[in-house]
Every structure is written in C-alpha cells, then in structure tokens.
C-alpha cells in the first residue's frame, strides 16, 4: 500500500513538470512572435516617415563654355580653370508625405522614432564616425603633374553627403583651391545650387610651375556653402602635402571633410533649454548663458546678443532677440521666449538661434549659429527628442556654435 501511494505521487509530480514546461514554452513562443511583430511595425513606420532630403547626384548645368580663370604663380606661371564638363540638371526632390495624427502622444512617438533613425549608431546610419563628431561629407578630386609642360593639374570631381546649411534643408556648395602656404591666390569652382551630392567635374591647371616648387606646396581644398546675403558658410576642408603624392600619374582620391580651422571649434558654446507644452501648443526657449565666445572686436572682446528665428519649412515666421551684453565673452542672459507652434507643424519647424556681435559703426557680425529641429545634427536632434519626450519640463543642453 505504501508503494502504490508513492508511485501515484511520482506520477502526479511528473505530470505537473510536463504541464509547467509546456506553459513556459508557449509563453516564450508568444513573446518571440510579439517582439517580431513589434520590430516589423517599427521598421515599417520608420520607412514610411523617414524624410527625403535633397540628394541629387547629377551635376547642375554649366553656365557657359570656354570660361577660364588665371592667376600668376611665383615661378612666373599661371593657374587656370579649364572648361567644366557639362552635366545634367538634378532631379526634383520627391514630395514628402505626412499623415495626420490623432493625438499628441502618437506624434511624439513617431518623432522619437524618426530622430532615433537619424542619430548616429542607428540601423540606417552608414557613417563610421562617432556620435560626438558631426558628419561633413567627403570630396573626390584628382591631382597630377606634367613634367614636359611643367603643369600641375587639379580636378575637382564631386562631393557626397554634404551637410545642409540652408533653411530649406540643403546647401549651395562650391570649392576653393589653394596651394599653401600661398593663400592670396586661389581658384574656385562653380556653385551647385541646392545639392548635397554635387558634381563639379572642373579642371584647374597651374602652368609654368617648376616641380621642385610643387613638392614644397600643400594642396588645400575648402568646401563652402554660398550665401548671397551674408558670409559664405564653411562646410569642411581637406589638405594633402604634394611631396607625399606620386605626381607622375594622375591619381584620384576620396577624402573625408574635416572641420575648418576657423570653424565651429573656436566660436564658443551656448547653454539653452527647451520646454514643450502640448496643451498650449508652445515651445519655450530659454537662452541661459554662453562661454568662450569668439572675439569679434579689435580689443579682443565682443558685444554679444542672441537672435531667434522661428521657421516653418523655409519661411520666417517670428523673430525675437535678447539684450546686448557689452564687452563680454562669457555672457549670462537668462531670457525666455515662447513660440506658438501647432502640433501638426512640429515636423516642419526649425528654430534658428544666432549669436551676434553688436557693432555701432558697421554691420553686426555673426559669431555662430544653432539649428534646432528633428532633422538637424546629432546634438540638436538629441535635444529636440528630449524636449518632445519630456513635455512641460525644461530640458537644458550645451550647444557648439557653428559657422
């Protein structure tokens, strides 16, 4: 009798183990299926809402044939820009579609998904640079030397993945060519309008240039964004000592653009906070303080103030500014500015913050800029994402001023 009872107990225990194992297996399978569906939905949403930036790869039409620029070189020679290869007009940018959202939470979730996709290290990011470094794109060029004619040839071919510098989310890039240490004489390519992947295909000849002087020079290329109404914005630069290049044959290079020496690194930083109120449809920008601003005056100081522009698409909607702080490179402002922004316009809104130097006798100088939106640089995108994700809270962050 004791043996039979023990057998029954063992049988019951085995049955319980089997049932528990079956339950755990079913739960695990369900969780895996749910995770797969969730990931599939996120990818679909990301592909649907991902913005279409200007990425036209074809070159702009040439403005004329037979144009040549020439400058005198130390050896009695000259540099000229030979005829550029005529290209095709860039394709029109695809229209962006935006679906209406039924709630603020849906909009916040979709914006967060988009911004994560644009941030470094995301699934769709092909870059190899760290999250702290801004992507400046790259440039393709060729260089070679003709010993018979004593001519150095530089060909500016194309650029790729240049950053957007204009309100419309694009740039008007062109290239300046120097043979350092000579910075007085320079040559320039044509401007490619609204193109982040420009094709220049322009050839520059430095004629009558002795080889022994060529190998003492450094080829310096600076990519800039053309601005009709203000100073051209530097995008990036490349330098290559010619004594490290086999000039006997025309060689082609792809080089990553680096920040310009006089670019954002020396312009200072600005601390500001953003507060998003979805109920009142407002974003409040608090300009807190700046540090290590670039000196713009002869006396080694500046008279800084901050100007704010609310942009909808590429149109200026509203302008505000702080007071002027006299003779100060580390000013404290502590001024707040609310902007009314309907929820449905958040996707196409940009807040441009410009630190200016006040000048009584001439035009005010730009010290540096910050573009705040969901499609700006990594630091700006992070701040915008934090603002959306933490409504009704002031989120502060330091920003590097850019040219």
Structure description:
The chain is an alpha+beta fold. It contains 4 helices and 18 strands. The strands form 4 sheets. The chain has a 6-stranded antiparallel β-sheet, with no helix packed on it. Strands 6-5-8-9 form a 4-stranded antiparallel β-sheet, with no helix packed on it. The protein has a 4-stranded antiparallel β-sheet with strand order 15-12-11-18. Helix 2 (104-118) runs antiparallel to helix 4 (378-389). The longest helix has 48 residues, at 2-49. Mean pLDDT is 75; it is low at 39-72 and 83-132.
Q: Which tags fit this structure?
A:
403 residues; alpha+beta; six-stranded antiparallel sheet; four-stranded antiparallel sheet; 4 helices; 35% strand; flat
Q: Radius of gyration, rounded?
A: 29 Å
Tell the overall outline: flat
Percent in strands: 25-35%
Strand order of the largest sheet: 1-2-7-4-3-10
Order of helices and strands: HEEHEEEEEHEEEEEEEEEEHE
**What integer is the average pLDDT?**
75
Terminal CA distance reads 93 Å
Q: How many distinct beta strands?
A: 18
Structural class: alpha+beta
What composes the largest sheet? 6 strands, antiparallel
Helix content: 10-25%
The tally of helices reads 4
Detail the poorly predicted runs: 39-72, 83-132
């Amino acid at each position: 009798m004791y043996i039979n009872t023990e057998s029954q107990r063992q049988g019951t225990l085995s049955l319980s183990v089997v049932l528990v194992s079956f339950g755990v297996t079913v739960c695990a399978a369900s969780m895996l299926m749910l995770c797969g569906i969730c990931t599939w939905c996120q990818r679909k949403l990301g592909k649907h809402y991902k913005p279409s930036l200007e990425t036209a790869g074809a070159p702009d039409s040439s403005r004329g044939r037979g144009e040549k620029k020439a400058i005198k070189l130390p050896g009695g020679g000259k540099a000229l820009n030979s005829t550029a290869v005529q290209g095709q007009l860039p394709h029109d940018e695809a229209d962006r579609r935006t679906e209406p959202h039924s709630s603020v939470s849906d909009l916040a979730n979709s914006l967060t998904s988009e911004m994560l996709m644009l941030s470094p290290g995301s699934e769709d990011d092909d870059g190899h640079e760290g999250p702290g470094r801004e992507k400046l794109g790259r440039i393709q060029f060729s260089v070679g030397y003709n010993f018979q004619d004593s001519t150095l040839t530089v060909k500016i071919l194309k650029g790729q993945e240049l950053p957007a510098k204009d309100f419309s989310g694009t740039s008007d890039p062109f290239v300046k060519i120097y043979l350092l240490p000579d910075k007085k004489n320079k040559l320039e390519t044509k401007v490619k309008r609204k193109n982040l992947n420009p094709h220049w295909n322009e050839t520059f000849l430095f004629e009558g240039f002795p080889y022994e002087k060529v190998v003492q020079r450094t080829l310096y290329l600076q990519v800039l964004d053309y601005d009709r109404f203000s100073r051209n914005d530097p995008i990036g630069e490349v330098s290559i000592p010619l004594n490290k290049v086999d000039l006997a044959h025309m060689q082609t290079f792809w080089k990553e653009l680096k920040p310009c020496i006089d670019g954002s690194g020396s312009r200072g930083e600005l601390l500001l906070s953003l507060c998003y109120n979805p109920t009142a449809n407002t974003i409040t920008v608090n300009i807190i303080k700046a540090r290590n601003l670039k000196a713009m005056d002869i006396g080694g100081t500046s008279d800084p103030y901050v100007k704010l522009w609310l942009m909808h698409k590429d149109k200026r909607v509203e302008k505000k500014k702080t007071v002027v702080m006299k003779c100060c490179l580390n000013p404290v402002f502590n001024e707040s500015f609310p902007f009314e922004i309907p929820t449905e316009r958040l996707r196409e809104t940009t807040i441009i913050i410009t630190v200016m130097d006040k000048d009584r006798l001439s035009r005010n100088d730009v010290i540096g800029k910050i573009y705040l939106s969901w499609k700006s640089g990594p630091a700006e995108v992070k701040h915008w994402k934090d603002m959306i994700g933490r409504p009704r809270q002031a989120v502060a962050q330091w920003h590097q001023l850019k040219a």
